Amino acid sequence: MLSVDTTQLLKGVLDLAVLAVLRDDDGYGYDILRRLRTAGLTEIGDASVYGTLRRLFAAGYLTTYVVPSEEGPHRKYYALNPAGRTQLKQGGDVWREFASTMNTLLRERA
Predict the structure, then answer these.
(1) Which of 33, 39, 90, 102 has the most CB within a 10 Å radius?
(2) Start and end of every Transcription regulator PadR N-terminal domain (predicted)?
(3) With the CA atoms of 90, 95, 96 and 98 taken in that order, what torsion angle do they form, in degrees rounded to the nearest 10?
(4) Which residue from 80, 94, 101 is spatially nearest to 12, judged by alpha carbons?
């Protein structure tokens, strides 16, 4: 029996999900993870998110800055830069087209 493994689906869209979470508010690693889980991506692993943040930063889509914390270690915040906003728009366009195609394919015929 064929089963859809959501972890495999997440691998293809995690970059886009992280960019989307950062669209309106900067965030630090755990905060971004919490926002993704609150949005419904409950099966995301911590290491996947931190790896994605490093990869998106290395690709030039994010900037970082450090904020001191009185409750523990300093927090490294991530923010979308103009290249990240462009990537989010382009990725969103591709996702909407792909999702529309899948919805058409999966629509039950009467």
Answers:
(1) 33
(2) 18-90
(3) 130
(4) 94
Which strands form 62-67's sheet, in the order they lie side by side? Answer: 27-28, 75-80, 62-67
Task: Report pTM.
Answer: 0.86
Phi first, then psi: give them for residue 66, nearest 5 degrees: -110, 135
Question: What's 58's DSSP letter?
Answer: H
Alpha carbon distance 34, 38 (integer Å): 6
pLDDT tens digits, residue range 16-44? 999 999 999 999 999 999 999 999 999 89
In sequence order, what are the residues at sequence separation of 6 or more whose Cβ sits closer than 8 angstroms to the Cβ of residue 49?
A: 14, 18, 29, 32, 33, 36
Q: Which amino acid, one-letter code, is at 96?
A: R
